[in-house]
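thread: overnight batch results

M.L. [08:02]
morning all. the overnight job finished for the chain we discussed friday. pasting input first so we're all looking at the same thing
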Amino acid sequence: MQLINPSEISSKIMTMIEDCESKLILVSPYVKISKWYKLKKKFEEAINKNISIEFYIRDDSENKQSMIEVNEFGIEPILVPNLHCKLYLNENYAIITSMNLLLSSEINSLEIGYITETKEEYNDVLKYYNKYLSIYKKGNSKKNENTKNIKHWLDLIVTEMDEKCKKLYIDTDESGITINTGINTYNMFLWNNNKSNILRINGILSGKQYDILSKQVDALEKEIGLKIITQNGTKGHYDLIWGESKKAYTVNSIHDAVDEEAKRISDEVKNFILTIDKKKKEIY
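M.L. [08:03]
and the structure it wrote out:
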């Protein structure tokens, strides 16, 4: 990939739109271009050429302006919960950047961007798009059902944890959820122990943190409300701390939890993450 100079990122995006022949994929969590006349013109030209356009924005109740901006072009935005990446593709190459389609970003922000140079690089970006973004398009009913449920309980976490965490990044796949708080990375999923479905969540520990917290398991269980297990890493693996729910779940996948079980997962995950983050900061 080739690094794009900060002053050239927006012009590269506009050139990519101009070069488009059949399909355009725009991934920008936030959009505000009503007064960005040069970029607006490029969009209008693409629309007049009957280019197929997919426009992904962040699904957020406070992000109504982005939806209005995209709708003004006659494009229905595709809403993605917790969207943070910025990605722009036509049928030949892609641009990966930190830049939202905001006029303020063009004027005031220092951004970084890369443009694909080979077919292999482009295909790697396309694989990411197919795995993590295209599932939000209408028509994929199975994925859309899962997405709705994921949002249902993850939104509970985001609402309560966003202000308490240094950062909050959430990623999903078919088996579970990964949450990065800026302090640690946590993985969670529902696990069948041949008897019932149990929520399991783990976080990484340093050697010092492992030594201290492995002696505080009973106190942590009372504080968090989960069964706590510390796991000593071997052969290059991280030391881990695990939390396991004491009450079983009726659903087989963490993505299918709704209503009371969704709230319980949210509470158990939140308590585990916030407590372990706090302990890590105290020990570090």
